[in-house]
């Protein structure tokens, strides 16, 4: 249950906790620790069930889509192409500036 922690280690931890917290606080700490662990286990179980339910819903959706495709012969109906309107007329381009007059050296 505790992995690699043996009985001597647990006794040492209990003695240190008893010295640090005292005999009056130790039962309260143990009780709150137990409640915290129980709540954590409950939340992790709920998360696990939620994930499993979502996976099953995904599998059922995939199988229903697969059945629909097999009933239609494996082809997907193609929609007609949507016509694209022609581009709107643009304003005439501005005239290009004329080059400066050439001057000859005198």
Explain what you see.
The protein has one helix and no strands. By secondary structure, the chain is mainly α. The longest helix is centred in the middle third of the chain and has 65 residues. It is elongated. It starts with 6 loop residues before the first helix and ends in a 35-residue tail after the last helix. The model has no long low-confidence stretch (mean pLDDT 81).
Strand and helix map with partners:
Layout: H1 7-71
Which descriptors would you attach to this protein?
single chain; 106 residues; 1 helix; 61% helix; elongated
Summarize the structure.
The chain is mostly helical. The protein has one helix spanning 7-71.
Strand content bin: under 5%
> Low-confidence segments, ≥5 residues, pLDDT <50?
none
Percent of residues in helices: 55-70%
What's the story with the biggest beta sheet?
Answer: none
User: What's the total helix number?
Assistant: 1
Supply the helix-strand structural class. mainly alpha
- Terminal Cα span: 107 Å
Kindly report the average pLDDT value.
Answer: 81
SSE string, helices as H and strands as E: H
Radius of gyration: 39 Å
| Global shape | elongated
Count of individual beta strands: 0
């Amino acid at each position: 249950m505790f992995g690699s922690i043996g009985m001597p280690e647990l006794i040492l931890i209990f003695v240190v906790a008893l010295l640090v917290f005292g005999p009056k606080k130790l039962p309260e700490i143990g009780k709150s620790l137990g409640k915290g662990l129980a709540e954590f286990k409950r939340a992790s179980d709920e998360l696990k069930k939620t994930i499993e339910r979502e996976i099953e819903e995904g599998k059922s959706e995939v199988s229903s889509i697969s059945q629909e495709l097999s009933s239609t012969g494996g082809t997907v109906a193609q929609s007609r192409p949507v016509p694209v309107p022609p581009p709107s007329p643009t304003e005439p381009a501005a005239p290009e500036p004329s080059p400066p007059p050439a001057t000859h050296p005198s």
